[in-house]
Specification:
By secondary structure, the chain is of the alpha/beta class. The protein contains nine helices and ten strands. It starts with a helix and ends in a 12-residue tail after the last helix.
Amino acid sequence: MSVLSEYQNKYQSARLERRDGVLEVTLHTEGQSLRWGFLPHGELPELFHDIGADRDNRVVILTGTGSEFSGPRATPGTSSFPARPSIERIDRIHWEGRHLLMNLLNIEVPVISAINGPAWRHSEIPLLCDIVLAADTAQFQDSAHFASEVVPGDGMHIVYPLLLGINRGRYFLLTGQTLDAAEAHRLGLVAEILPAGQLLARARQLAAELAQKPTLLLRYTRLLFTEYLRRQMHELLGYGLAMESLALFEKPEAPPAAR
């Protein structure tokens, strides 16, 4: 079991605060919008594990900082991996990638995402939450994978075809399509769109209402809702990450000093 005091200040990529059983998780990079890299990629799997192991968490709110939920937006035509990573780096990416989404889904209480702005990277994380709220400034794009010469095998290949339908999901991933908040709502990715200034208040209102429900009702409903998603991850996530890693061997070998 985890205790909040043991992990509240443990992570550089998240600010944690709990009131009346509602744990608010605010992702950030040095107080600004989250910048994806090896630090959050390594921290978030462990963070989600700690949250899930803390029985005092009754509801979780996941949000971001500043004008973006996650970035930076990759530049079209540039590669996220211009050179082949070392086998040690590939192994780390594969391990963290599997545990990142599984540990999120293993949180056994309802999770609400409040997407405060564009999610250019790892937008599958907030979209896997039970209630998805978005600011009217939110946008969704998988900028870091196929458009940046990386196989979208870290869960994007599972989540977007599930949410959009297989044909629209493949189109989204192959073309680098950007969906604004209104289109994401129309397609069913997002439950509510709110002005940015009202987003967190709405998430807190919903969380407070949920937190009043009986404990086992909360936990077992979450288990029921995530079972299908966890099965999909068990079947396809490791395979997708393996394909993503294998394709990187097409890259030129990095100089020894850069590995």
